[in-house]
Write a structure and sequence with these properties.
About 40% of the residues lie in helices and about 20% in strands. It is α/β, with parallel strands linked by helices. It has one domain: Rossmann fold. The chain has a 7-stranded mixed sheet, sandwiched between helices. The longest helix has 12 residues.
Length: about 210
């Protein structure tokens, strides 16, 4: 059981951080336009996420993982991210990032922000380079919701559960939460959210939580 008074689950790319990691990795290979086009379709819900991820990762074959440091020095945190996490921590909430992105990045974001847990896809590597494949089960929208629900069952009864995301892949997670927050989000996510925040400042969510939790 979790000895916490609430739970908040975040998406990472374009939510806790201001970039789409897979697009920026592709840019290092000169493949940004091809990958970004697929990313945009997936975020709008026009193509299946798992299929889109497989297509995009295949285009990253051969890149040296050491180059990832260029994208995360410093970590491109979204404005207000630390303030929001600090607020949630002050209320003794369990803070989690669940991403359709990659664990190399979520681990660093979790450490920087002081999150309790991170879940993401594992990029297959060989001799320090990407093979163009994902290891294990793909973290898609349904997996995100499952993680939230599994954590909810470990909380005290009536503990508030909040989810924050920006793309179509977050819709099931937001619907599974007590309060689903669409952050600078695609229209498909705004339609299912309880709250929509249109300005790129996560600290604006604090007032919403004060009013509702």
């Amino acid at each position: 059981m979790l000895n916490h008074s609430g739970l908040i689950v975040f998406d990472m790319d374009s939510t806790l951080i201001s970039i789409e990691c897979i697009d920026e990795i592709a840019n290092l290979l000169g493949q940004r336009d091809a990958v970004a086009a697929i990313t945009e379709q997936a975020m709008r819900g026009e193509i299946d996420f798992a299929a889109s991820l497989t297509q995009r990762v295949a285009l990253l074959e051969g890149i040296d993982v050491s180059l990832f440091n260029k994208l995360f020095t410093p970590i491109p945190l979204t404005q207000g991210a630390q303030a929001l996490i600090d607020y949630c921590k002050s209320r003794h909430w369990y803070c989690v990032v669940v991403s359709g992105g990659f664990s190399w990045f979520t681990g660093r974001v979790a450490e920087q922000l002081g999150l309790d847990m991170h879940v993401a896809n594992e990029l297959e590597m060989h001799n320090g380079k990407l093979t163009g494949k994902v290891s294990g089960t793909i973290v898609d929208g349904h997996k995100k919701a499952q993680v939230l629900q599994d954590l909810r069952r470990q909380l005290p009864v009536n503990a508030p559960v909040v989810a924050v995301g920006d793309g179509a892949n977050d819709q099931w997670m937001l619907q599974a939460a007590d309060i689903g927050i669409a952050f600078c989000a695609k229209p498909v996510l705004q339609q299912v959210a309880d709250i929509s925040v249109s300005q790129p400042d996560l600290a604006l969510i604090i007032n919403e939580l004060e009013d509702r939790c």
